[in-house]
TrEMBL record:
The active site is at residue 205. Binds 2 divalent metal cations per subunit. Zn(2+) 2 binds at residues 176, 206, 317. Keywords: Aminopeptidase, Hydrolase, Metal-binding, Protease. Belongs to the peptidase M42 family. Zn(2+) 1 binds at residues 66, 176, 228. One of its GO terms (biological process) is proteolysis. It comes from Halocalculus aciditolerans. This is Peptidase M42. The lineage of its organism: Archaea, Methanobacteriati, Methanobacteriota, Stenosarchaea group, Halobacteria. Residues 121-132 have a biased composition (Basic and acidic residues).
Amino acid sequence: MSFDYDLLKELTEAQGAPGYEDRIRDIVRREFDGVADDVRTDAMGNVVGTIEGSENPDYEVAVAAHMDEIGFMVKHVTDDGFVQVDALGGWDPRVLRAQRVTVHASEGDLPGVIGSPPPHTQKEEDREKKDEVEDVYVDLGLSGETVQERVAVGDIVTMSQETERVGDLVTGKSMDDRICLFTMLEAAKRVDPDVTIHFAATVQEEVGLRGAKALGVDLDPDLAVALDVTVANDIPQIGSDAKAVTDLGDGAAIKLKDGSVITNPKVHRRMRSVAETEDIPYQMEVLPAGGTDTAGFQNTHGAKPVGAISIPLRYMHTVTEAANTDDVDAAIDLLTAVLDTETGEHDYTL
């Protein structure tokens, strides 16, 4: 790896559910120190680090990656001290059984587990019952009275998982989208741009691209580029190459479309040209569903040319999300090269 794995591990192990990205925000501001010419945070919690262009500072590019991870909010504490939650983001309830979590209470973090009844005690109808988030109970291992004193409705719950190297992969709970946030920070440290670059760490992407939409009103970029993970269904359970979208190890993905956006053809063609000129591995991405901050910028502050670079990810929205380290290298290299070759003279109008 040619990148800072310790920083990636720190970002992906830190907790930050939608609307409560404070810990990630602190890391981002620290990493921008000495790198960006200006750093600011808006009322929603988006962080923008700006590097002024040396040749054409009036031409502005916005680069966005979101800080939040899917999580939960406490909605009820039972008399026996079990915590019930409401989802923040898109969960598959099947992956929640027998997981460790952290409850972020006002007086400090509390470790907990989402239990699963043993098969010995389950009836046939119990085994066939469809999992739902509303059926999740967090066990804190404390008395009902203690839990009710320490946990309140509105407290945040996140998954607890270490980030690990597994072969050529790096896996953890919040690669979506911390691995792209990391890519953005690494590129910010490497670029020497002709134009002004606004590196934006956005909030609340997992609940409707809310941070990027708000930021798209405050910033008025000439070009916007979003960074997010994309689906790599190159696993036996899928079985069809047509459903794979991307393959791990084949390079950074240049987005053509997802469920929220169709990227500007001139933008994605230039990204492809840069990748080929710089000999950076890449693949093209057509994602049938899902949305990214790309659409947040396209839908606010007038018509903007938008593009997106994605990192292929297996097992999305689980605690074992997995990316190939070569693809991370490629994404950093491609973003850096695209920004370093942006002069403000490319015509993206259609």
